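Task: encode each sequence below as structure tokens.

Item 1
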Amino acid sequence: MAKRCKPNGDEHLYSQPPVEHRFRKGVSGNPKGRGKGTKNFVTIFMTAMTKSVTITENGTRKKISKLAAAATQLANDAARGDKKSIQLMIALLQAFEPTIEAQRPKEALIYSGVLAEGDRMV
């Protein structure tokens, strides 16, 4: 059981420092904040993933980003039948479905000068 404080406040309770050593109200624990030169995780990750790597595909060497190489490897593993790769691919496709639909070209049909969607590419 915790020690009781005396009315004059000479002693303090367990894990309660004296009042003069406690955090003060309205004062930040990190007054300078994050330095301008430090980068967050997303910036560091995207910098690493956009660096190029040389691959050999069908006997020819070409440079692609690490992100493209990882996506290609994931697609190849899923096509080969790896269950974890298939699950990850399905989850990624569901997450990016609105973006994929927005990038898909619109198809239009021409009937005597009138455009209708869905039948013929123009």
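Item 2
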Amino acid sequence: MNRKQTWKAMGIGLASLLVAGAAWAGGPGGGPCGRGMGPGMGQGGGPGAGMGLYMVERLGLDEAQQKQVEALRAEHLARVEPVRAKLDGLRAELQALWQAERPDRGAILAKQDEMEKQRVQLREARVDLRLAVQKLLTPEQRARAAELKKDRPGRGKHGRGGHPGCPYGAGPGR
């Protein structure tokens, strides 16, 4: 291997390490300061967006409500699974664009825009699910849910995964 090829291989290796390191450092939360879509967050597990087992047990949902929530959740998962799969494919495509010898800014930005459209669909689906679940609750259960959300475990004064000094720390309403 000549000197030029060695430097090229080292550069590609370093770029790969930087991309992988940044992804790994984000952990399951993936977002800034530990915020993001980790296990059990957002579109994923639990019988509804924002209504995990913690909430179901404490709200005293009757059997009919539990079945309705489970049906809504199943419908939601079926709706978002193709969107998630598309987003996963776009992530791989974006990674390939970054690993090119000369990354194309326009192609990277276009791919990020495409990914954002998928994320918007996921956020809209979460809103729809959450609103549908709220419609099933009695006024007393909704009030209790609001009270419980304030006191959920893992929700310190710095918000979900936040910490002092984080530029994305918990502000009003977080």
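Check on item 2: The chain has five helices and no strands. Helices lie at 3-26, 53-59, 63-98, 105-136, 139-150.
End of task.
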